[in-house]
Design goal:
The chain is α/β, with parallel strands linked by helices. Helices cover 43% and strands 18% of the residues. Helix 4 links the parallel strand 4 and strand 5. It is elongated. Bound molecules: adenosine-5'-triphosphate (ATP). Adenosine-5'-triphosphate binds next to helix 4.
Length: 322
């Protein structure tokens, strides 16, 4: 393969830049020319791409976000949008594409593969909801940012006997909330996979205080519960509960961190491996990490599906919050 391209798509994740760098330098090492596509599939449909050399990806391994930019594109979900993208790839004589992104991005990659265009995916999303990789690029850094916030809130929560709700990202997947809740020692964890209600959450905190706990931290996944509704419930029942609830939404702060060592290494390995597979003629697979080994999984097996939450982790959270 003499000419390949790389794009980042969907939500940005710390480590995407390390993956771009790995794709460019591995491609060059294997004798290919490498093009960077700006703004994901949106840029692909507008032929917004340029050739990248080894020096163009220098000094980015330590940066969060993505130097290529990312986007969400509804048009690419249509056959007409994808036909436009394919025509641009052909015009630039690109022979293969590396797609760095999460669930939706890999579903888009599979669509291109089905149209006969060689594509290999790199597992990258802070949500960790992608099948085909036990852990994805950005998760570790996002978790550490959430933990730093939880640790700080615990200090102030204990000083004032105030409960704190920390809302973390993860769309409809509770992984980030569950794992940051376990690692941060939260009293309650609310995730979309386990339906609950405000009175049950309040009871969990009341019981925690009754057991002598100094603070009450609830970690809530963004897709699990409306934060305002939860805060409203606690406000309405402040007298009977005996404590107040304050809310902190981490939001995009969680995305923007500089990638830690784990994400830089993961991204470097996945990016290099994906490029190698692509240049050797493989298409329609996602490169991820399974049981600590590099692994390829056919896009057909993962497209449009979501990884289920680990029930053992849910049990662990319950036991350790006692
Ligand atoms: P993250 O979960 O980290 O935000 P993601 O890759 O899941 O990443 P999405 O917004 O779901 O983010 O998808 C990114 C883009 O992939 C979409 O904007 C769209 O252009 C493309 N895409 C998603 N689903 C499809 C699909 N079914 N067919 C074609 N393209 C798709």
């Amino acid at each position: 393969m003499k000419r390949i391209a790389v794009l980042t798509s969907g939500g940005d994740a710390p480590g995407m830049n390390a993956a771009i760098r790995a794709v460019v330098r591995t491609g060059l090492f294997l004798g290919a020319e490498v093009f960077g596509v700006r703004r994901g599939y949106a840029g692909l449909m507008e032929a917004d791409m340029q050739q990248l050399g080894a020096r163009d990806v220098g000094g980015i391994i330590q940066q969060g976000g993505t130097v290529l930019g990312s986007a969400r594109s509804e048009e690419f979900k249509t056959p007409a949008g994808r036909a436009k993208a394919l025509a641009n790839l052909r015009e630039f004589r690109i022979e293969g594409l590396v797609v760095i992104g999460g669930n939706g991005s890999q579903t888009g990659a599979y669509e291109l593969h089905k149209m006969g265009f060689p594509v290999v995916g790199v597992a990258s999303t802070i949500d960790n909801d992608l099948l085909g990789s036990d852990i994805t690029i950005g998760v570790d850094t996002a978790l550490n940012i959430a933990l730093e916030a939880i640790d700080r809130l615990k200090v102030t929560a204990a000083s004032h006997r105030r409960a704190f709700m920390v809302q973390v990202m993860g769309r409809n997947c509770g992984y980030l909330a569950l794992v940051s809740g376990i690692a941060g020692g939260a009293e309650a964890i609310v995730i979309p996979e386990v339906p609950t209600n405000p009175s049950a959450i309040a009871k969990t905190l009341r019981d925690a205080y009754a057991r002598g706990k100094a603070n009450g931290i609830i970690v809530v996944a963004e897709g699990a519960y409306d934060a305002d509704e939860l805060v409203g419930y606690f406000k309405d029942h402040k007298e009977s509960l005996g404590f107040e609830l304050r809310a902190t939404t981490l939001g995009h702060v969680q995305r923007g961190g500089a990638p830690g060592a784990f994400d830089r290494l993961l991204a470097s390995r996945l990016g290099a491996s994906a490029t190698q597979h692509l240049c050797e003629g493989t298409s329609g697979v996602l490169v991820g990490m399974i049981k600590n080994q590099l692994a390829t999984t056919p896009h057909e097996e993962i497209a449009g599906k979501t990884k289920l939450i680990d029930k053992d982790l849910m049990r662990l959270a319950d036991v350790l919050a006692r």
